[in-house]
Structure prediction request, 369 residues.
Amino acid sequence: MPEPIPMLDLKAEYALFEPQLTQSVLSVLQAGQFVLGPQGLALEREVAHYCNVEHGIGVANGTDAIHLVLRALGIGAGDEVIVPAFTFIGTSEPVDYTGATPVFVDVDPHTFNIDPDAAERAITPRTKALIAVHLFGQCADLPRLQALCARKGIALVEDCAQSIGADIAGRRCASWGVAGCFSFYPSKNLGAYGDGGMVVTADARLAEEIRVLRNHGSRARYHHHVIGYNCRLDEMQAAILRVKLAHLDRLNALRREKALEYDRRLAGSSVVTPPEHGQGTHVYHQYTIRSARRDAIKAALEAARIGSMIYYPIPLHRQDVYAARGTPASLPHSERAAEEVLSLPMFPMLTEAQQARVCEVLLRAAEDY
Ligand SMILES: *Cc1c(COP(=O)(O)O)cnc(C)c1O
Prediction:
């Protein structure tokens, strides 16, 4: 029986950077400063610089990053925020935290990113912001979304949890909206060894407000002018992330190579490989195919001990928590995507032999009527 093939192999990545990672953790232990210190400040500068944006604010996770941006924008009860229906719930939960209402709109059937025309139709006088998700590592149509938000006077917020390093029309994601939000959850392209996140923004006032909110609403220690939160990024994670950030472009390039290899091996079959929109770099957080025989393919991979995941099986407007609020709109592209998508093993150290086996099992199941 051949070795199992995981969805994601974090141990292989650790092995690659082991001496530097161990050293970075030790240096934090020796420095004795664990929350809000030099590692976090340095990472904030480095991630902001990487995105070509002025300010970075480290936070506890990606969900908090979005929440603090919405709070700092003054969004609250009575407001509406436009969110794509086909994404992780971490995109929409922060809207609910503020008391505002997420308004779900459909996605483009090819890229699975928010459809700008559907977004425009969903705008009402209550709409305060639109959250663009760069799903699976490919930028949403940021030039159009930016123009739409400017014309309508609403804030564009970027959920870049899956897309660090991706660009469109020559500009990195996170630099198009009023703010870009990153998650450093271990499985993301830039992953910590625990939770982590960051907001980047060109707006100095917004950056300052988010800095205050993440640290108990205090500008000066023990002086509080607003009720804030405890959602800071710790020094250990920041030190680890700095080591990995230095190699991020190379790791993303490896993901792109693996994606091309899948494309080649699956070409001409009945499964639809992920299309690139051709306006920028896809960083393949996930390699997601679609097929009417998705469930049979998944079962065959499982039987061969090959990992695969359905991101996402239920679109947000059909989730119990949201559907209970009233009759959910019909969003056919999101609903069909949920029935047909399957993400295959994808990580920088994936080998060609592993990919050959994935595709062999997959193609047999896909064509076997
Ligand atoms: C991971 C993720 C989040 C949430 O990030 P956390 O760090 O887990 O809070 C939000 N949106 C998307 C699209 C994600 O993939």
Q: What stands out?
A: The mean pLDDT is 97.
